[in-house]
Amino acid sequence: TMNYRHAFHAGNFADVLKHAVIAQCLDHLKAKPKPFRVIDSHAGVGAYDLTGDAARRSPEWQAGIARVLETKRPAAVEAALAPYLKVVKAMNTGADLTAYPGSPELAARLMRQDDRAHLCELHEADAKTLDARYARDARIKVERRDGYKALGALVPPREKRGLVLVDPPFEHRDEMAHMAEAIKPALTKWPTGTFVFWRPLKDLWASERFDVGLAEWLFEEGLAAPEKILRADLWVRDLESEGKLAGAGVVVINPPFTLEGHLLALLPWLAEALAQGDGAGWRLDGAVTDDSLSVEEF
Ligand code: SAM
Predict the structure, then answer these.
(1) Which Pfam families match (predicted)?
(2) For the segment 117-136, what is each residue's pLDDT rounded down to a tens digit?
(3) Which domains does the chain have, with CATH numbers?
């Protein structure tokens, strides 16, 4: 069963962090003229109407992107958010915030003429919507396909540089473990690609297991040095609190060297600006091993 609809969550705090990171990665790829490829295994519908039924029934964006735009942003935060907010602003030229970019739209709007994107979406109606959205964009290929199964076959891309985003819905209990296994063929075949893995901070045991398991496996296989792994998490309430998702973040393999500095400015600011109650916080660290350096603020 596929019940997850991202339209109910588009633009929330978790999207803000994930999409700011993706936009920074894309921006960094553009520093060199050589083309790159974006591979998005769980693409969604591409962009979201914040005036639509789903967003009206579940206006999570009001405590996410809307607050980011309303809050005064110091220069370092502005720099960290620049490529992301550039897209959000380009989609919202009127007085109100009405549209929000999904990961495909961020790619579409930040890519250049010769860059390419390969998008997988398994949900039938969503895949159709996504396909229609980019039908006239020759840079973008859409496939209705299981993104997990596709990953290993889609890397390394011809361009030999680029970004892989794995952003599953986590509607099944064992999705974290499933993701951990499904990404291994792709990491083995393309250890130099930049990979962004999104995961919720809900079952903290499961997310820790994912992070540590991934780092240890990468070292054991000789695929990545400790400094090639970065983990960034944000929580807007006490993680132990009941109810809606309180925290989430990304694990990035081969992050651009500029990302850590941007996140160090961005995360404390986001934790304050997007707080929904007591116990908001953030964490930024490298390889998740015993001797790793860690910055945390609770
Ligand atoms: N990456 C998108 C973004 O940032 O805008 C949001 C993606 S949403 C969190 C997850 C999507 O994965 C949903 O649209 C869902 O239909 C789709 N999906 C679920 N299982 C899938 C699978 N095995 N392969 C590809 N897509 C899948």
Answers:
(1) RsmJ
(2) 999 999 999 999 999 999 99
(3) 6-297 (3.40.50.150)
* Cα(16)–Cα(273) distance, integer angstroms: 12
Task: Write down the residue that tokens 């707080």 correspond to.
Answer: 275
Nearest residue to 297 via CA among 281, 276, 277: 281
- Token pair, residue 97, equals 């915030």
Q: Which of 13, 16, 42 is the best mutation target for the ligand 1 pocket, counting ligand atoms within 8 Å of the beta carbon and taking the most?
A: 42
Q: How many CB atoms lie within 10 A of CB 217?
A: 16
Using 50 as the pLDDT threshold, list the residues of the chain that sit under it.
Answer: 290-293, 298
- Compute the mean pLDDT over every residue in the chain, rounded to the nearest whole number: 95
The ipTM estimated for the assembled molecules is 0.99
Q: Among 15, 115, 126, 167, which one carries the catalytic annotation?
A: 167
pTM, 2 dp: 0.96
Per-residue tokens: 38: 């974006």
At 101, phi and psi to the nearest 5? -80, 135
- Respond yes or no: is residue 114 known to be catalytic: no
Residue in the block written with tokens 């250049």: 112
